[in-house]
Amino acid sequence: MRKIISLVLLLALAQQPSLACDGTARQSSGDAREWWQSAQFYQIYPRSFMDSNGDGIGDLAGITSRLNYLKDLNVTAVWLSPIYTSPMADFGYDIADFFDIQPEYGTLNDFDNLVQEANKLGLKVILDFVPNHSSDENEWFKKSVRRERGYEDYYVWHDGYKNESGARVPPSNWLQAFRGSAWEWNEERQQYYLHQFAVKQPDLNYRNPAVVAQMKRVLTYWLDRGVAGFRVDAVPWCFEVLPDETGRYPDEPLSGYTDDPDDSSYLLHIYTQDLPETVDMVYQWRKLLDDYQRIHGGDRRVLLTEAWSPLDYVMKFYGNRTTEGAQMPFNFQFIVGGNSDKNNTDLPASGFVKIISSWLDNMPSGHTANWVMGNHDQRRVGSRYGEGRIDLMNMLQMFLPGVSITYMGEEIGMTDLDISWEDSRDPAACNSNANIYEQFTRDPARTPFQWSNTANAGFSTNSTTWLPINPNYVTVNVQTEEAASKSHLTIYNQLVALRKTKTLQQGDASYTAIGDNVLAIKRFLKDEKTYLLLANVLDSAVTADVSDVLRVSGNFNTVITNMLSTRKEGDIVSVNNVPLGAYEAIIVESM
Ligand SMILES: *[C@@H]1O[C@H](CO)[C@@H](O)[C@H](O)[C@H]1NC(C)=O
Ligand SMILES: *[C@@H]1O[C@H](CO)[C@@H](O)[C@H](O)[C@H]1NC(C)=O
Ligand SMILES: *[C@@H]1O[C@H](CO)[C@@H](O)[C@H](O)[C@H]1NC(C)=O
Ligand SMILES: *[C@@H]1O[C@H](CO)[C@@H](O)[C@H](O)[C@H]1NC(C)=O
Ligand SMILES: *[C@@H]1O[C@H](CO)[C@@H](O)[C@H](O)[C@H]1NC(C)=O
Ligand SMILES: CC(=O)N[C@H]1CO[C@H](CO)[C@@H](O)[C@@H]1O
Ligand SMILES: [Ca+2]
Ligand SMILES: [Ca+2]
């Protein structure tokens, strides 16, 4: 089936080779562009970025000490994964106090200092906002367990049922994301509570206006501390369907995808995800940010939303005809749009084209595209797309029109480290068993950042770090790559500089596949230089003629080459005869 689809796509492309696509808002091109529209966002997983006090765990002072590195990368805004008080059942996505900092990461003072120092360097700070759930150690939950006034319905509680043999059974068949029932019995309250993630992550009840107001207070609190916006976690889970008039929640239908009844993909989540109420909630948060800016001034505050939902639902987060939504609903097509097992090491050029067009063709007009290649939940890009394609993926992220969102370490080509069962820390792994955890674990992409080839990769003075360090740090690290004449990092820096050209900031894009091997992308703007990204995505050499498909002619000048290319900057490329070695990727400019 997939073969047929890509064949049809190739035929369509052959007939209409220059699929022109504008990744950014036409009406806002030129002067009206806002700071975020061609920004580089950089995701930091704080636990693994930099340890300032030798306890083997990254922290806020560590991040502050490395802001110059981010400045040198010309990062526009840094998104920090959760840093709030947490028992760390899900490494900070289980928040015990939405208004304070996890002690092992530092204090509110350390946070204020981080924002201040970042702002001095022109860097904005974005926080992770985790609206769907809190920790069971949050005061709100404890009060709700005790049915304290005002907190009775802060979470989703239910008596459950007695089955025919008189045993207590949960209110519905709903499953949590980390395996097993989404309902947990609470002895003290004598009711079940809903947790769409871990048992220690009870879902807040968005049907309760007091909860909605409380979470808006959380946003305002951090805006007051100077953040430039929020990345919103796990958005599609916020609302669940209302119970029927007898108080019963409907069971979800079986998906047929797996026989494992504990696996969340055993069910189709038609009652627990992607509800319309959730979209409206995002619009309300956007309004809060805009109102805040109107009152307090400063640059536009932004929202980035995380939703692994069908594209038509994801696109709704941009807003509708009357109401603004998130500026950047995350585009996960490079993660979900390839092969279903996410092993894209053999993905042909048409697969890349399909991924790119799936976003650009479905994005409502007047909005800005964004490109996410990975994050702390996914295998590293080099491990998913193959190490030969590390630079290519960075090139795509920087070259395609719109916002780039880099997960820390991708700029130096960090790859997954296999973590043993004993060393596993992720609840998604630990809730399974030693035989199957590798399917679920998210630890391999969370290992400490590799700063140098000195002890512990320069991450910590402690030789015991919370997750082991990838032994490849000896060669894959910032210090070594900065000193090299050519490395993943020097190439990334070249891409950053290229991004500053008017063509890349404001130009149109067209793109196509030539055979299985060649992915060809053109960026162009009237009166400016034209740039071409020409990539051989497979491991056999080819020669391509891109002149007709990209509507270009003559000679181009080589400006950036990947690690596997033997070309040099300044080499002349004739667009009707471009030999490309295995996995070679180059960017050339018109002369
Ligand atoms: C080093 O890290 C380990 C494990 O994280 C910890 O138990 C130990 O106390 C740390 N050493 C120092 C000096 O902080
Ligand atoms: C009732 O639930 C209990 C506990 O889950 C289970 O062991 C038992 O088989 C169930 N009985 C029936 C009749 O479904
Ligand atoms: C847009 O969204 C708002 C807020 O959810 C809603 O009230 C309005 O009806 C929607 N408009 C259209 C045209 O869908
Ligand atoms: C992906 O597929 C390639 C080629 O079939 C294989 O060599 C590699 O081990 C696979 N990688 C993963 C992470 O499954
Ligand atoms: C980052 O920006 C500064 C000033 O805008 C510039 O001098 C520097 O070359 C840029 N770095 C890169 C990698 O483009
Ligand atoms: C990419 C990402 O942030 N994923 C998070 C989604 O939400 C769950 C629950 O909060 C986390 O476990 C994931 O890490
Ligand atoms: Ca530390
Ligand atoms: Ca929910």
From TrEMBL:
Residues 1-20 form the signal peptide. GO terms for biological process: carbohydrate metabolic process. Its EC number is 3.2.1.20. Keywords: Signal. InterPro entries: GH (IPR017853), GH13_cat_dom (IPR006047), Glyco_hydro_b (IPR013780), O16G_dom_2 (IPR045857). It catalyses: Hydrolysis of terminal, non-reducing (1->4)-linked alpha-D-glucose residues with release of alpha-D-glucose. It comes from the Eukaryota. The keyword Signal applies. Residues 43-446 form the Glycosyl hydrolase family 13 catalytic domain. Pfam families: Alpha-amylase. The keyword Signal applies. It is an enzyme of class 3 (hydrolase). One of its GO terms (molecular function) is alpha-1,4-glucosidase activity. This is alpha-glucosidase. It comes from Bactrocera dorsalis (Oriental fruit fly).
